[in-house]
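Journal club prep — side note

Before the paper discussion, L.F. wants everyone to see what a predicted structure for a comparable chain looks like in C-alpha cell form. Sequence:
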Amino acid sequence: MVEVDREPTYQPKTVGVVWGLLILNTLGSAGAQTIVPLPRSLIQMATMGALVSAFALALVLNLRLRVRASAHLFLLTLLLVLSVISSAHLVSGFGALFRCFRLSLFVGTLWLLSRWWDGGHGFVRHHIRLYFAVLVSVAAGLAISPGAAMPELYGGRLVGALWPLTPPQIGQYAAVIIGLTVLLLLGRRTDRVSAAVVIVPSLLLLALTHTRTATLGLLIGLLLAIGSLVLTSAAARRFFTWSVLVATVAAVGLSSLLQAWFLRGQTQENFSNLTGRAKVWDALLAAPRTTTEQLFGAGLGDKSFGGLPIDNSWLAVYNEQGLAGVALVAAIILVLGGVALLRPPSLSRACAIFLISYCAIASYTEAGLGDASPYLLHLTVAASLLVTPAADAPPPLPDVPRRRVPQQEVT
C-alpha cells in the first residue's frame, strides 16, 4: 500500500546516485563523432541500464513506497497513460511501446524519489554537481582533441568528443548550472570560490557552443528569478543593478561582436526561419491527420518528422501525443508557475522560477517536454523546491504526577 509522506525526511547519499543515473539516461545516444568511436547500441544499453538501475535503487531506498503528493507527478502520470494509449496503435512502430516502457520507469523513479522532497536545495546541488561532471567530460574532450570537439560539421561549435553531445545539449547544461549557482551564491548557500569554479568554465563552454536558446534562457530566467528576490535580498538588488549596468555597457560597446556571435555566420534568411526549423514545422502542421491522431497523436517517436528533427517541444508533443498531450504539458508548466507565484519570496522559489522559465523558453526551439528528458528533470527539481515542508509538531507536554488525595472513611 502506498503511503503519502508529509514530513521532510533525511536524504541518503544514494539519492544523488539515483539522480545521476537519471541524468545519464537522458544524455541520449545521438550526437557528434567521438574521439573513440562508440557504437550507438552500446550507448543505448548504457543509458537504458542506467534507468533500470535508477529505478531499482530508488525502490530499494523506498521499499515502503512512501511518496509525496504532487500535482506535477500526477500530470506526468497522465501524460504517461496518454502516451501508452497513443502508442498502442503502433503508428510509430514497436519502438513507441519501448519508449513508453522507458517513460514509465522514469516517472516511477521520480515518484519514489518524491519522498525526499522537502523544499530544500538537495536536488539543486545534485543537479549542479552531476551536470558539472558532464561538462568536465566535454572540457576534457576539448583539451584532448580540439578538432574533434569543434568539428566543421557543426560550424565549429563545441560538441562532446568523449560522449556524443550536441551543442544545444552542452549549452543547456551549462546555462542551467550557471543560473542555479548564481542563485545559491546570492542566497549565501555557497561561497564565492566554489561558485567561480562552476560558473567561469561553464560560461566559457556556453560561449563555445554558440547556443542562442540557452543564452536567452539563462538571461531571462535569471532576470525573473532575481527579480523575485529584489524586495527581500540586498545581495539580489546589488547583483541586479550591476547586471543592468554591465549589460548596457556591453550592448553599446560590443554590439557588433555580440551580433556576429548571435548570427553564427548565418544569412538573414536562414536566421529568420530558425535554421530551417520553420520549414519542418510548416510541413508537420500541413500533414493530413485523422481525428484520433489530432487528439492523441501517433505515439512516442524520435522527435522527428520526415527524417528531420522537430526541435519544438509543443509540436513534438502534438505529433506524438496530440492536442491532449499539449494540454497536459501546458498544465505542467502553468501549475508549477502558478504555485511558484503564490509562494512567498525565498531562494527555493527563485530557483524554481529560473528552472520553469528556462524550460518554457527553451521549449520553442528544443524538444523534450513530452518524454523522458533533461527538461522533465529540471521541472522536477522545480517541483521539489516548491514543496511546503510540514510544520514541526509541538513537543508533547510533560506528564504531571497527580496528587493522591486520601479518601475519608465514612462512619
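L.F.'s comment for the group: Strands lie at 3-4, 66-67, 304-305, 308-309. Keep this in mind when we get to the figures.
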